[in-house]
Amino acid sequence: MKSKKALLFNTLLVFAVVFAFTLPAQAGGKAYKMGLSLAITGPTSDAGNPYAKGAEDWFKYVNDTKMLGEDTIDCTIKDDQYENDTTKRFFEQFVDDGIVLFLSYATGANLALKRDFEEIQIPVVPASYHEGLIVDAKYTFMPVATYSENIVGLAEYVVENHKDGGVPKVAFFIHPSAFGRGPLEDTQKAVAAGLKMEIVEVVEHGKDLDNSAMLQRLISKGVQYVLCHSVQSPVATMLTDAQRLGLAAKTFGEKGKLTFLGAHYTGGNDLIALAGAATEGFFWACSYNLTSENNEGAKKQLDLAKKYGRDDKAANSHNYGAGILAAQIATEAVKMAKAAKLEVNRENLYKMLNDMKFDSFVAAGPVTLSKTERIGVDVLNIYVAEGGKFKKIKSVESEFIKKVRAGR
Question: What does the alpha-carbon distance between residue 400 and residue 186 come to, in Å, rounded to a whole number?
Answer without folding.
Answer: 9
